[in-house]
Protein 1
Amino acid sequence: MQVRKARLQDASNVYDIVNSLSGDGTLLKRSFPEICENIRDFTVAESDAGVFLGCGALHFYGPHLCEVRSIVVKPEAKGQGAGGRILGTLLEEAEEHGIHSVCLFTRIPDFFFKFGFRTVEDKSELPDKIFKDCQNCPRLHRCDEVAMVRGRIPRISILGPRHEAQELVRISG
Ligand SMILES: CC(C)(COP(=O)(O)OP(=O)(O)OC[C@H]1O[C@@H](n2cnc3c(N)ncnc32)[C@H](O)[C@@H]1OP(=O)(O)O)[C@@H](O)C(=O)NCCC(=O)NCCS
């Protein structure tokens, strides 16, 4: 198995697998143009024969926070380490960029506990995530996902009404 950064040629596989699980809300629906635009966020796993096994993405909010998104493995490839390898690679990528807080929303917290994530009881402690995805989500008031973070919860946010961009520029500098 190989785990590597995605190339644009992976976009159709990423699109198919992510949207195969968006109908029931397991993953956020992503359009093909959106996946192409953000393909450099993605890491993919493939077999030694080059068969696509799964993917995951790391979205940067800023130097204070990033998010693991769209992590999924083909049903027939589950349980063979691909999901863990993809997640580990995304976490290494966050560290390479000096980001010490990684968040996600999920229905399977047990998987992420294994990788050092912990539950965030109050979702409003992650305002950037709320502003980016939750505000327009049909499940806003009946969300069945668990918010999780690895590292500290950021004290600042970059999206929404409370802009603290200057503080972020200072941190990243
Ligand atoms: C979650 C998912 C990516 C895991 O991929 P995978 O390749 O099967 O995972 P791995 O084989 O690398 O498993 C790594 C570890 O996590 C555990 N694990 C895997 N899936 C798990 C789950 N759903 N719940 C709890 N633990 C899980 C494995 O037992 C293994 O533990 P171990 O190291 O103690 O043996 C895969 O099941 C999947 O695609 N699920 C559907 C999409 C989804 O729900 N994504 C998460 C959206 S936030």
Note: Helices lie at 11-20, 32-37, 82-96, 109-113, 127-134, 165-172.
Protein 2
Amino acid sequence: MLPLLLALVGLAIGPLLGIVLDRAVERERPEPLHRCRTCGTGLGINSLIPILSWFISCPTDAAHSKWRYPLTDIATAVAFAVAGARFGWTWQLGPYLLLFAALVVMSVIDLETHLLLNILTGPALGVGLFLVLVLSGVNNYDDGIWPALIGAGVYGAMMFFFYRLYPPGMGMGDAKLAPTLGLFLGWMTTTPVNAIRIVLFAMIVSFFGHAMIGLALRLSKRVGKGAELPMGPALAVGAVVMIVLSDRFLLPT
Ligand SMILES: [Zn+2]
């Protein structure tokens, strides 16, 4: 029941995230309603209907809206349902819903622009640290603080290392996103060893998934040699997968 409810909540806030995305991708001032991508005609309140808004074409030139809107709606609904299934009605549900929403926004921007914006990765880490420290304390989960900090440090250091090793493979933005992912991954555990384990597994899932999708795209000739799949969404999905499966990959404490 909770996953279904949260999927609906995700669908409802998807269009709101779409407004944030407009600002980030096109450097437009955020507007409460969307405009046609080609002629700029206002699309009215219909443009905020989750998913279905994509099927509404512009009254002036019949152009369809941007694919980022339905993608954001669907991704948010799925991510929220997954969070509901994983956490249930626990105090951890809130912070991880926030994380997942932030990851949807950052991933869609990265897919479109190949950028992870400092204006999002920076605050995400700041808010994450604040949540970890405050919520761990309030909920008698002090054992989770050190693993979270260690996860952040380890993931950040590893991605920065890879970035320096082979700059074309990923961007500095990926190295800036990694500490936030490591923070929330480590927070799932109560020992430093498990924090490192879950971060490593998340990285492996991300790199493997990224390579497989990149290979599939190349085989189907959807992308040229120059066009690379951005790393950010893969890191996000890898982290979500390991957050969901964490219990199966951790050592008993
Ligand atoms: Zn138009």
Note: Residues 91-253 form one domain.
